[in-house]
């Protein structure tokens, strides 16, 4: 999979509209279903085209390469993930509460997501590099997303005007570590235990 600059990933993932082209949307829906069922490596452009009910040429005309199709599918799902996360925490009054609930929702949604969670189960060797040694772009996009929320909270809640990026990065890295290796003395599958962990260890970072 090719990588873009961090700014490109962030801008495209956070502000990405659904394609206006009905055929492109149908192809992305088919790609999501195909990659979810069989994984990326065992799926071809022909498979996606057949599932979408279009020709192979039609897929290539819109997405050029398989790598581009995979990336566009992931970007659309990442955009939906951020939107769902925003909706889950929007009604909470303080940043500490949003950090706690956001941590729980992010873990639950990622594990349950048919593509993200499915790829972690079906093709960990494909996904792991993009969460570890080759994870700069996706990590930066997620850190930037959280940094923006923390900056807005500084203004609204009168917090010290310090760079929140280090705190955001630490929070994201903790969440990723639990995604990669869920075995722990803390049962992260239990929402209340996950909340208790975030309340005790992550929320206080806002005051560090």
UniProtKB/TrEMBL annotation:
Domain HTH tetR-type: 21-81
Top-level taxon of the source organism: Bacteria
Transmembrane segment boundaries: none
InterPro entries xref list: AlkX_C, Homeodomain-like_sf, HTH-type_TetR-like_transc_reg, HTH_TetR
Pfam family, one: TetR_N
Portion annotated as DNA-binding: 44-63
PROSITE patterns: HTH_TETR_2
UniProt keyword terms in alphabetical order: DNA-binding
UniProt xrefs under PANTHER family: HTH-TYPE TRANSCRIPTIONAL REGULATOR RUTR, HTH-TYPE TRANSCRIPTIONAL REPRESSOR RV3405C
Protein's name according to its UniProt entry: TetR family transcriptional regulator
């Amino acid at each position: 999979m090719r990588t873009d600059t961090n700014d490109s990933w962030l801008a495209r993932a956070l502000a990405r509209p659904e394609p206006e082209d009905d055929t492109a949307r149908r192809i992305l829906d088919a790609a999501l279903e195909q990659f979810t069922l069989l994984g990326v490596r065992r799926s071809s452009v022909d498979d996606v085209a057949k599932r979408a009910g279009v020709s192979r040429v039609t897929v290539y005309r819109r997405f050029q390469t398989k790598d581009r199709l995979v990336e566009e599918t992931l970007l659309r799902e990442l955009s939906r993930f951020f939107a769902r996360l925003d909706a889950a925490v929007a009604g909470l009054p303080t940043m500490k509460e949003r950090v706690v609930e956001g941590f729980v929702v992010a873990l639950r949604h990622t594990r349950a997501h048919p593509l993200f969670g499915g790829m972690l189960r079906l093709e960990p060797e494909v996904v792991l590099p993009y969460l570890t040694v080759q994870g700069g772009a996706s990590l930066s996009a997620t850190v930037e997303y959280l940094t923006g929320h923390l900056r807005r909270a500084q203004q609204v809640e009168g917090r010290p005007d310090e760079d929140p990026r280090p705190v955001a990065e630490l929070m994201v890295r903790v969440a990723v570590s639990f995604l990669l290796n869920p075995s722990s003395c803390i049962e992260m599958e239990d929402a209340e235990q996950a909340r208790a962990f975030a309340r005790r260890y992550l929320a206080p970072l806002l005051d560090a």
